[in-house]
Structure formats: C-alpha cells, structure tokens
Amino acid sequence: MIVSEALRLGVQSLGHAREVRLLMAAALKIEAGRLILHEDVALDEAIGAMFWAYIQRRLDGAPISQIIGRRQFWGRDFKVTQDVLDPRPETEGIVAEALTGSFSNVLDLGTGSGAILISLLMERPSANGVGVDASEVALEVARCNSQAFDIEQRCSFKHSDWFHEVSGFFDLIVSNPPYIPAKELDALDAGVTSFEPHMALTDGGDGLSAYRAIFAGAATHLTPVGRIIVEFGAGQGPDVAAIALASGWKDSEFRKDLDGRDRILVAQNRH
Predict the structure, then answer these.
(1) Higher pLDDT residue, 190 or 2?
(2) How far lies 69's CA from each of 38, 143, 215, in Å?
(3) Half-sphere exposure of 13 (CA within 13 A, CB side)
(4) CA-to-CA distance for 196 and 63, rounded, in angstroms?
C-alpha cells in the first residue's frame, strides 16, 4: 500500500483529512507540509501499523497533540504529554499582550508545558524567567521544552503552589490558571477530561481560587512598574476584575480573544 491509499482509508475511518495527514506525517517523522512529496511512496509495514494505531487513539478521543507528542504555540512546536494542559490558541493572547510592553524578568505561574514562558523568552532574547507548577511531571515537560529551544540558561523551573517557593521580583507575571468551575467539568469534551490533567483544568471549586492567590501574592513579587496578565474563562471577567481590585490592583483592563470575548486581564499599579 502506498501512502496516498493509506491516507484515503484513514479519512474514511476518521472523517478529518487534516488530522489524518498530521497523523501520517507523525508516523513518517516528517513535517506535515512535506507529506505531499511522499504520497506515492510504499508504506513501510511498521510505519503503517503506527499510523493505524494513531488513528485508533484518535477514534478513542485522544487529542491529536498528545498522539503526536507536540502542539504548535506562537509559531513553535512544543512537547506535550498527558501531564500538561494542551496549550490553546486563545492563550497566545497572553504572549501578544506581554509583548506590547517591556520586561526583563518573567514569572509564569502554573507553567505546564512552559509554552507561555518559553515563547516570551524566545521573543525577548535579553529576558530571563521562572516557571512554577504544582506538578513535578509537568515541570519535566517544561524543562525538556526549554532545552529543545536552547534557552535553559535563561529560565528555571520550580515546584511550587503559586508563590510559596518563589523569591525575588519580576516586572511581568503571567498565568493561565485552572479556571473551570468543578460543576462545569462534566460538560467538557471527553477528549479534555479524559486526557488532560484535572489539576490544570479546575481548582475543584468555583474556578476563581487561583486568581485570589495570584492577585494577593503578586504584591510582594512584582516591581512597581510591572504587569500581571492572566487568562480567564467565559463570563468570569467581572469576577476576576473584582478579585484584582479587592487585592489592591486599581488599574485593570480586559483584552478580547479572536471571537471577541473578554479573555485576558491586565493589571498593574497596586495602591
């Protein structure tokens, strides 16, 4: 069987041509854009078996990123596993907003794969950063990503529950914390709840506890001209802004995602 025939059968099984091509490219260990150059090549038996195993995992609900082991974020491929949250396109809003200003020292709270922190450091070669997470296995993924992009000398990763093990000052604090209320978890797609770590999705309560910890603790770690940039879920904007204000952050503004919904809060100037 040649590659193009396997692709056709894969689409019949899965129904999504783009996903099938990504899975085939992963099995062949080539870039998806180069797959067209291999369509007339005979499919090796071992690679064919891997491809069909990938198709079956996708049919079972596994996210594409976890099957192929990587996810593109801010134009770069990051390693992902079931131990980290799959970085979403809307989270790129944190990076875009951060890059509108200057920073030299970044703290990423709940870093997961390290995608936010590493993207920021790649865009600002003179900056340094720290990523913290309550999951040791997630931190190992983040370290692998920092090594893959050859910036491990400019960033470090710590096992910490928010600010507990953090020291020093930063002029930028960023976070995409677990914000899904526990009561809404069952309504999520099974591909999310079955394959991504629950501690990265929900706080087990109202979905707002992370913001209380972040805005309360940032005062002792943010420079006077620093910024806090956080992502939040649908409809949570007013609550997150109220938490920031109650913690003393008098200036906060929303930023919208590509769907026009408030998704990012930027806070500064604590009084």
Answers:
(1) 2
(2) 22, 15, 33
(3) 20
(4) 9
* Average pLDDT of the chain, as a whole number: 96
Every domain of the chain and the residues it spans? 3-60, 69-270
For residue range 23-45, what is the model confidence (pLDDT) as tens digits? 999 999 999 999 999 999 999 99
3-state secondary structure the chain: CEHHHHHHHHHHHHCCHHHHHHHHHHHHCCCHHHHHHHCCCECCHHHHHHHHHHHHHHHCCCCHHHHHCEEEECCEEEECCCCCCCCCHHHHHHHHHHCCCCCCEEEEECCCCCHHHHHHHHHCCCCEEEEEECCHHHHHHHHHHHHHCCCCCCEEEEECCCCCCCCCCEEEEEECCCCCCHHHHHHCCHHHHCCCCHHHHCCCCCCCHHHHHHHHHHHHCEEEEEEEEEECCCCCHHHHHHHHHHCCEEEEEEEECCCCCEEEEEEEEEC
CATH number of 69-270: 3.40.50.150
Amino acid of residue 78? F
Residues in the chain: 271
Q: Is the entire prediction scored with pTM above 0.90?
A: yes
Q: Is the pLDDT of residue 270 over 80?
A: no
**Dihedral angle computed from the Cα positions of residues 125, 144, 117 and 109, in that order, rounded to the nearest 10 degrees:** -150
Structure tokens at 70: 């990587």
Distance of alpha carbon 162 from the chain centroid: 17
